[in-house]
């Protein structure tokens, strides 16, 4: 199968984050088995979704991991010109949810498998396909936790997020949380008898804003845009009607951290502001939504040199979005980002990838295979 044919099949699976993914896992597993790959399907604690780990070549030797996620964000936005879960071809553009982020990388990897499987690899190439990356990298930690049961310590991990086929050395870390405030409702004419959860949320909101302003003063890491850590509130919901004292308010807040900062620690002032409301009679819940570390790979690292050779392009120092690469690095592995497509097309109507980008990625993976012959 050509990469575009495989992509059409993958896009056709409605593998939206947070939903069961047995169909896409089973199809990929069957495809890989047809070329003699060793397959492990790793069921996550949710019970209805799995990671997939596959090996081409000798598992007893150290090799390279091609890492990608099978889930996609929902496609409920207005503006789609066609069914987002049916691949639409228009010239050199292939449209559909996940084409850039990141089923294009999966398709290119799978399209390279026949060549890899027919080669006398002395070092293996592994495929590590995860679930629920779009929910804050929830699936891949379960795979990483079992990695050394499945293979020898890898020489490096290539995370195929859309990067225009230019290797990326670093990204920010992230931590996100939900704050739920419960007060006491009543008629708005007697605010003295109620506990206004929306008013209370202002303290939490102000803590987030103050923290964001403080972080903008540094410390700085110039390779990032912006070159400092950030905190922001992304959603706020509460209340029933203008004449009812609101007894409920929910906020979602996130931190994006430069490599020298702990993203979870950046949210401490927000957490403390929320916890302080308990003394005023509010019930407060703090729920961690996601957390992953930053990636920071030295330019002199062997993996960075390898990707420069394979792509012919000097690596980019850093991006501000996050990936699973930081989790691999935290586990002690060299990791780098490099994949087809453009992050600017992701999470939007009419997401697309170019056929030339798929071809370039497949060529890179086949070249990696040639490096594993000796």
From TrEMBL:
UniProt KW keywords = Amino-acid biosynthesis, Arginine biosynthesis, Cobalt, Cytoplasm, Hydrolase, Metal-binding, Zinc
One Pfam family assigned to this protein is M20_dimer
Q: Which InterPro entries match?
A: AcOrn-deacetyl (IPR010169), ArgE/DapE_CS (IPR001261), Bact_exopeptidase_dim_dom (IPR036264), Peptidase_M20 (IPR002933), Peptidase_M20_dimer (IPR011650), Peptidase_M20A (IPR050072)
- SUPFAM superfamilies attached to this UniProt entry: Bacterial exopeptidase dimerisation domain, Zn-dependent exopeptidases
User: A GO BP term, please?
Assistant: L-arginine biosynthetic process
Q: Which GO terms describe its molecular function?
A: acetylornithine deacetylase activity; metal ion binding
Q: Where is the Peptidase M20 dimerisation domain?
A: 170-273
Which intervals of the chain form a coiled coil? none
Cofactor(s) annotated in UniProt: Zn(2+)
Protein family per UniProt? Belongs to the peptidase M20A family. ArgE subfamily.
Question: What's this protein's name?
Answer: Putative acetylornithine deacetylase
State the species of origin.
Answer: Rhizobium mesoamericanum STM3625
């Amino acid at each position: 199968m050509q990469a575009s044919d495989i992509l059409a099949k993958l896009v056709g699976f409605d593998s939206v984050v947070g939903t069961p993914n047995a169909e896409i896992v089973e199809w990929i597993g069957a495809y890989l088995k047809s070329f003699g790959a060793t397959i492990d399907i790793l069921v996550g604690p949710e019970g209805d979704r799995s990671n997939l780990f596959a090996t081409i070549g000798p598992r007893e030797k150290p090799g390279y991991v091609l890492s990608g996620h099978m889930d996609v964000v929902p496609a409920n936005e207005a503006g789609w010109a066609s069914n987002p879960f049916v691949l639409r071809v228009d010239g050199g553009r292939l449209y559909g949810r996940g084409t850039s982020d990141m089923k294009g990388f999966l398709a290119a990897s799978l399209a390279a498998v026949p060549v890899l499987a027919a080669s006398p690899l002395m070092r293996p190439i592994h495929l590590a396909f995860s679930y629920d990356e779009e929910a804050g990298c929830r699936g891949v930690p379960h795979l990483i936790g079992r990695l050394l049961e499945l293979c020898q310590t890898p020489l490096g991990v290539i995370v195929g997020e859309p990067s225009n086929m230019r290797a990326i050395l670093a990204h920010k870390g992230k931590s996100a949380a939900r704050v739920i405030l419960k007060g006491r409702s009543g008629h708005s004419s007697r605010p003295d008898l109620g506990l206004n959860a929306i008013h209370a949320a202002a303290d939490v909101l102000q803590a987030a804003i103050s923290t964001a302003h403080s972080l903008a003063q540094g410390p700085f890491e110039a390779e990032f845009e912006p070159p400092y850590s950030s905190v922001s509130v992304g959603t706020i919901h509460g209340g029933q009607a203008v004449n009812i004292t609101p007894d409920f308010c929910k906020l979602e807040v996130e931190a994006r951290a430069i490599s020298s900062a702990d993203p979870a620690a950046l949210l401490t002032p927000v957490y403390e502001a929320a916890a302080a409301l308990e003394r005023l009679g509010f019930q407060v819940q703090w729920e961690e939504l996601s957390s992953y570390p930053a990636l920071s790979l030295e330019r002199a690292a062997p993996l960075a040199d390898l990707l420069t050779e394979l792509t012919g392009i000097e690596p980019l120092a850093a991006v501000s979005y996050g990936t699973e690469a930081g989790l691999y690095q935290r586990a002690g592995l060299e990791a780098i980002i490099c994949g087809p497509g453009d992050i600017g097309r992701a999470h939007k109507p009419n997401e697309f990838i170019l056929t030339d980008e798929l071809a370039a990625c497949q060529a890179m993976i086949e070249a990696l295979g040639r490096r594993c012959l000796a």
